[in-house]
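Notebook entry, cofactor series.
This is the third protein in the set we're modelling with a bound small molecule. For this one the ligand is adenosine-5'-triphosphate. I'm keeping the input format identical across the series so the outputs can be compared line by line later. Sequence and SMILES below, as received.
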Amino acid sequence: MTAQLSIRHLEKSFGAVKATNDASLELLAGELHAIIGPNGAGKSTLISQIAGEIRPDKGQILFAGQDITTLPAHERPRLGLARSFQVSQLYPEFSVLENVAVAIAARERRTYGMWTPLSGDASLLEPAHSYLQQVGLGRRGDDLVSELSHGERRQLELALALAQEASVLLLDEPMAGMGAEESARMTELLMSLKGRYAILLVEHDMDAVFALADRITVLVYGQTILTGTVDEVRNDPQVRAAYLGEEHA
Ligand SMILES: Nc1ncnc2c1ncn2[C@@H]1O[C@H](COP(=O)(O)OP(=O)(O)OP(=O)(O)O)[C@@H](O)[C@H]1O
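Returned structure with ligand:
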């Protein structure tokens, strides 16, 4: 099977710090693949290289067999590679529904000026509503983004990623800053997306990772030391020593 995404021996240094230092993994179609590792292991740097925001010093990134190592970040979503949006990219003064509509318009490269009301365009609003339903925000469409809780904003970010109609989703800590209830809701949500997308998930919440992942890659000091199933990773002595401790063993 051709991997949706192949990461081969990526290296990226910031001065003397080797943030990624021989990072390799394969993301297969439809799998949820988690990346775990201690703070500073290079997880975010790896995701940013895959998204095209950071250029690797060495190594290769292939998307469905095509070398995209040097492809600009803005051209990657069109191939089907979407990174979940950050909160700062939401428009707080727009409604929840309008935020998704804007993302769809951007994907379709439609131009909207201040004078073009999004609110009357059913060709944007109907699919936007459907994405909101998929992330459990179907009833919040008319609310302003500023009225959403932290967890709901993260759900909206996910809707924006879905609106890009990608086959591969890069999710960088979707549970960050969430309480137990919000994390459980996000876990359920990601579970409902499993199989429809290839998902690369960076997440510190080990309960969520163990519940969701088909496979896990462990990154330590920028290097991928192991890829395996949940059980293989949990029982690996090197991983236990490097990262997990005894609490999740
Ligand atoms: N722009 C940068 N300039 C300098 N050093 C950086 C930069 N980005 C990351 N680093 C360093 O690279 C290393 C890897 O950082 P990175 O944020 O990728 O790790 P991480 O695994 O995502 O960490 P965390 O789990 O804490 O989010 C760290 O030592 C970090 O300080």
